[in-house]
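Input.
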Amino acid sequence: MVPKRLSYPCLGDVPALFINVINARSKRKQLFQMLVDTGASHTSIPASFASSFGHDNTAPDVATTEVNGIGGKSLAYIHTLRVELIDPQAKTWAKLVSPWRSPKLPVLFIDKMDTQIGLLGRDILQRWSGIAFLPGSDAKGQGGTRSWTITIEL
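Output.
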């Protein structure tokens, strides 16, 4: 089988892409922007978005853990999700085409994560054959920004 290669243009110099986040129980999908973070051990989403994905951080059966990151120590709620890539070359937006879906996995919803996007960590990235960040040809010179492309090989 020939590996499938997907290329996602980034918005400026931020290596982020849109994925579907899927509630493991209800199977409901929600489009969400994720930063591809090779330095993050675990896929993480701000805790404030849990209800958007059908989860309740205050439910008595929700496991928690403490995480350490750039903002210091924080409480994280552990919810089970799936994520799926969206094919950037699909010809229709009426139905998004998914070339890859993760198995069910624990995702951290972090209290002190004060962003509007999540982090796609190595727990997901290691499931692909390869990932590369390729600079665009639009260098702006000293102090300017440049576009990037994320290339994922499945």
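The CA atoms of residues 4 and 148 lie 20 Å apart.
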